[in-house]
Amino acid sequence: MSDDVQVTKVLDLKGLACPMPVVKVSKGIKEVEVGQIIEAQTTDPGSMTDFPAWATTSGNEIVKTEQEDKLIKFYIKRLV
Amino acid sequence: MQNFEAQFDELKSQVEALNKKTAENKLSMIVFSGDLDKVLAAFVIATGAVAMGMEVVMFFTFWGTPVLRDKNKSVGGKDMMGKMFGAMLPAGTGDVKLSNMNMGGMGTAMMKSLMKKKNVASLEEMLALAEELEVRIYVCEMSMDLMGFKREEFIEYQHMGFAGVATFLQEAQASKIQLFI
Q1: How many domains does one find in chain A?
Q2: Where are the beta strands (DSSP E) in chain A?
Q3: For the domain B24-180, what is the CATH code?
Q4: Of the four listed, A26, B43, B73, B79, which is most buried by Cβ atoms within 10 Å?
Q5: What does the domain layout of chain B look like in residue ranges?
Q6: CA of A17, closest CA in chain B: separation in Å?
């Protein structure tokens, strides 16, 4: 968890391979209200470029990205 | 003034015609191949596209057709050629082989176990996911007729239909992306 970002829901996508992280995050974001933030945790290195591509196309916003070793955390704000 | 109104009407009908032709946020895909790797790629793209907010239509034709058969279903009344195709072509997702390095089935088996180990979704899982994500599938009637397949021997898939080239082209014309796999 991050101090300055209010996370409503955490999505554990660790260990999943393409296309599952993107498929699951697109479902997961719909489980929070517009304006709320989800934290998506992945270990798929491809998600480093895939998540920004997904966010841009789907119209949502990645407000912050953190990386600790293989673990990547995306903080995504639902905008649509 | 009358001339102005006529011009306005003409413009209006032109705009309406243009609107009809404008591509929707849709992906149309032809799955021609019956190879495990290629069909898998088709489903990865299809489900990924839904995640990106697109509508997806897949058309299974030629060698792609038998991938959607149900191995537990058998139908009678086929002629000799139909029986031959039925026996020689894959009966569903479990039967399809890699396009490369199949090595008499050994390569395919190794790839499947590797996919499991690396947590890559199997073809069966991808098909189930596609159904859940409402990916529409059409099966080519001409291929079925050619190979002697009957509708009764296909899998249960909620969003499946049987169609021809005109249906694909209608969908493709209204799609932003068209792929042939």
Answers
A1: 1
A2: 7-13, 37-42, 61-68, 71-77
A3: 3.40.1260.10
A4: B43
A5: 24-180
A6: 5
